[in-house]
Amino acid sequence: PDRTGVFGEEIAPTISVFKQDGALHGMYSTIKDAIAASEEGYTVMLATGVFEEDCVIDKPLKMVSRDHNLPFVHKDPLVSSGLMYVGCGIISRRRREPCLLVRCAGVHLSGIAISQIDIPIDLDGDKEGGGEAQMNGEEAHGTSAVVVVEEGQLSMENCYVSAAFGSCISIRGASSSISMKNCRIMEGFGGGMRLEDGSHGLMIECDVASNKGTGVVVNNKSHLIIEHSQVRDGLEDGVVFDCSSTGCLDRCQVFKNSGSGVVISGGSEPDVQECRIFQNYSFGVMVRDVGRGRIMSNDIFENAGGEIEIRGKGNPQVEGNKIHDSSSSGISVDGGAGRFYGNEIYSNARAGVKVRNESKIEFVKNVVCAGKHSGVVVESRSNGHFEGNVVQLNGQCGFEIRDDASAYLSRNLVMRNIHMGFLIYNGASGLLQDNEVACNGMSGICVMLNSSPNISRNLIRDNCQHGIFFTQGGKGNVESNQIHSNRKQGVRIEGPSDPIIQRNTIFNGLKHGILVCDGGRGTIQGNSVLRNKGSGIKIRSEGSPVVAANRFHHGEGRGIHVASSGMGEVCCNSIYQNAMEDIQVDAPSDQVV
């Protein structure tokens, strides 16, 4: 019920002031009079109704509603303000002054709705139309927040704050702080809550919703802890930490914001942990401009732009998260860095992880699976350390290393991807060591277009095409690997590729152990090639390798087969116990054996 006289009502609500011992100090009709009559530690109790006035609290006191409960506020077209309060409310039409200004420590509010409203009535009440309700976009930047704390300390419980012009709450200054529990911060034209200039805050079980600006901004070395709250349905970002700010977002839900769910920038370093961040229209979490922080044990999913985006030298620690069901990439690092440990990254529409533009990451013990694109893509002169990961069941390759990128890949399990396990191309390099590459839909490892990796001590098995495939100028050193049970060749070299294949064991392939063809070259030495269905090595179509000091034995075909137009040099090999000829050279080969 509205009883302030703003809309013609005759009865104003009453205000009771109580002393510290609970004795009644006096009864007042305005909040200003009640505050002026109060002393330190007094309680100002507001009756049910709506008060239109601006308040400055400059002494420690409590301001509570009669029932202390969260006021219920909803839109009502039959009320000229557009708002209906069931409980106790303070309203203001002024947009350049706060509705409530706190300038001291020890102020507590409970069960009060505080709103800046847009009513086309002049401040003096003389006429309708215009007034301060009429404003344009430029004027909005000069408006005040509804609740402002300047060099003071405010606690709020069961309160509601909304703003038709500015932001809902502003905390300013290193000695200022706010503590909120079970509050609703809604429909702020300039955003929900801002902490500035080293201020501090705590939010527990609050609802920050439907703000036209950013839901929560922590700026300029400020610190905010948000627990068990939700930040939702805003027209910009959900929560922003900027300019060397810190804090913690703990067990919250951040969803359906038109920007990103959480933004960390400007050297800020917050913790984001055990949250659900989903269905935001940009990124789930954006880290940029030297932002850091720890992103731990969250469920981040169904964000339109991607789940985690790192740009501009951002360098967070990302640990133990579920990152899934994005319409873009799961994790994208563009000119940034980061450490990723123990995450589950799955069912994303593009790459599970994409690293580009000279980024550098450490990626350890993660699972990347069931994506529609490749599991991990490293490109554009980027560098990564990938160790102990499981990369499987992705719609294209397990790993793509390309475009002058370099990667150290060790002890990864890369299996059951639709295309290659590893695709390394266009000038890429790196070290593949102690990985298991198995059951991929095409080759286990493909090297092409002037790339030159070192491939050593890997288990490369049961792939649907070749174990290792060199084509279109691929190079590199393949040493001390176990290559077996692949459905085509253990190693295939096509021209003008020229790798070094040495000290490997290549066995149980369903075709040849090694095939060199179409102008391929290479140095093949010190390998043990056995029990393959085809020849131990076959050279054809102007293939021209150097084959020396190998053992070709116990094959079901020939030991060495130099087919028509095969070339090169074959010497000092041990060839024995093959089912067909140990050596066959077909005319008109120019082979030297």
TrEMBL record:
Pfam families: Beta_helix. The keyword tRNA-binding does not apply. Coiled coil: none annotated. InterPro entries: Beta_helix (IPR039448), Carb-bd_sugar_hydrolysis-dom (IPR006633), Para_beta_helix_rpt-2 (IPR022441), PbH1 (IPR006626), Pectin_lyas_fold (IPR012334), Pectin_lyase_fold/virulence (IPR011050), SCF-Subunits/Alg-Epimerases (IPR051550). Pathway: Protein modification; protein ubiquitination. SUPFAM superfamilies: Pectin lyase-like. Residues 212-379, 424-563 form the Carbohydrate-binding/sugar hydrolysis domain. This is Carbohydrate-binding/sugar hydrolysis domain-containing protein. It comes from Guillardia theta (Cryptophyte).
